[in-house]
Design goal:
TIM Barrel; globular; eight-stranded parallel beta barrel; 13 helices; 399 residues; 19% strand; alpha/beta; four-stranded antiparallel sheet; single chain
Length: 399
């Protein structure tokens, strides 16, 4: 079995997404995906990664991943190259599931749970303008989410105040303004709705600790990315000065960056994204490592239906899962347009897709849309069965 072609697909209506299709000589096609900063990921996929994996056996997932990582490690791996590798790796798992007619969670070793706890990140899209809603009346939004079976929500009411000082100072009046949405939720639905606070690493420690002190009376579920992830000691100090659990960080790529975070004990909860961090196997390795430290994990999931399916399978498998993020504004609008996946939430939980591989298909009409941008790499590739680099300069021609 060989990889014969790798395609990237984008649509003007969904500019944040890049879907990857990996073709094989048996006719089986695997689906992958990554999200955000797509020009770089697309260039890495076709310019660097495709020449290495074309002609190779798609079932050798670990060997191909290591071979690609050997290459991209030379020039700083944790960016566009790793996002592209993640999308490819996801597609390889989809192929394996289709070859053996098994769902991804079986390939990983089976389930530890039958349903996936989720919180809603309140982004707006299409008919679901949840971002505008929590700025207008967060209590009304909380009621709407509860009516949809959603029992946890994430908002970021303090970000807007960071710009004037570059996150170096927040005035008490602005802290009070930021608390408005939190109070509206508590006044409207009490403790029936869990509240997570996203901070988007906008603040220094002095400012974020002022915010945390103001939030503590409201029984907050977590604060996420309170300080840039490159400052783990400051984040750890913050986590030790607040009763609110700290989450970090989706910005850390691969097990190697998460390793130091866990050894330091930076946060009570870790977060990672399987279409950014290296892929499905890398997510499991990160989760297993976190489990050894007694730390639960959140799966970052703000992409498309393929990433969502991946997170459901991983969420079913991983014993130390805390939550899987999801976005109502995405899965109720464009997920059914792109795919056959139509998630629903019941009692705060999502269901797990069934079927071979990821259990998801791309609708045929997506391949015929006028706004489709498709790029294809095909042929035998240049690596010709290699599994390790050896002398870097001796094989420069395949880079």
């Amino acid at each position: 079995m060989k990889i014969t072609a790798i395609e990237s697909l984008q649509w003007a209506e969904y500019p944040r997404l890049m879907v990857v299709r990996v073709h094989t000589d048996t006719g089986i096609i695997g689906l992958g995906e990554t999200v955000d900063k797509i020009p770089g990921s697309k260039g890495a996929l076709h310019g660097t990664i495709a020449p290495l994996v074309l002609g190779q056996d798609p079932l050798d997932i670990e060997g191909l991943w290591r071979f690609v990582m050997d290459n991209i490690m030379y020039h700083g791996y944790a960016g566009a190259e790793t996002r592209a590798l993640s999308a490819l790796e996801v597609a390889l798992w989809d192929i394996m599931g289709k070859v053996y007619d098994a769902p991804l969670y079986h390939l990983l070793g089976g389930k530890t749970r039958d349903r996936i706890p989720t919180y809603n990140t309140c982004i707006g899209f299409g008919d679901y303008q949840d971002y505008a809603a929590w700025h207008t009346d967060a209590g009304a939004l909380a009621k709407s989410l509860l009516a949809d079976g959603i029992k946890a929500m994430k908002i970021w009411p303090f970000d807007q105040f960071s710009e004037s000082s570059f996150g170096q100072y927040i005035h008490p009046h602005d802290v009070e303004k930021g608390l408005t949405a939190v109070r509206q939720i508590r006044d409207a639905v009490g403790l029936d709705m869990e509240i997570g606070i996203e901070c988007h690493f906008r603040w220094n420690r002095a400012s974020i600790e002022r915010i945390a002190r103001a939030l503590e009376p409201y029984n907050i579920l977590f604060m996420e990315d309170v300080i840039p992830a490159v400052m783990p000691d400051e984040i750890k100090a913050t986590s030790q000065h607040t009763s609110i659990p700290i989450i970090g960080s989706e910005l850390l790529m691969t097990r190697w960056q998460l390793r130091d975070w866990l050894v330091k004990g930076v946060s009570q909860i870790v977060m990672t994204d399987p279409v950014w961090n290296g892929g499905i196997a890398e997510t499991r390795k990160i989760a297993n490592m976190a489990e050894a430290f007694g730390v639960p994990i959140v799966l970052h999931n703000v992409a498309g239906p393929i990433c969502h399916a991946v997170c459901m399978h991983l969420g079913a498998h991983l014993p130390n899962l805390f939550y899987v993020e999801s976005v109502r504004a995405f899965y109720k609008t464009y997920f059914p347009i792109m795919s056959g996946l139509t998630p629903t939430v019941n009692d705060g939980h999502l269901s797990i897709p069934e079927g071979a591989g990821l259990g998801i298909t791309l609708r045929e009409e997506m391949l015929n849309r006028a706004d489709l941008i498709l790029e294809r790499s095909d042929g035998e590739g240049l690596a010709k069965g290699r599994r390790a680099m050896g002398d870097h300069w001796a094989v420069e021609e395949i880079r």
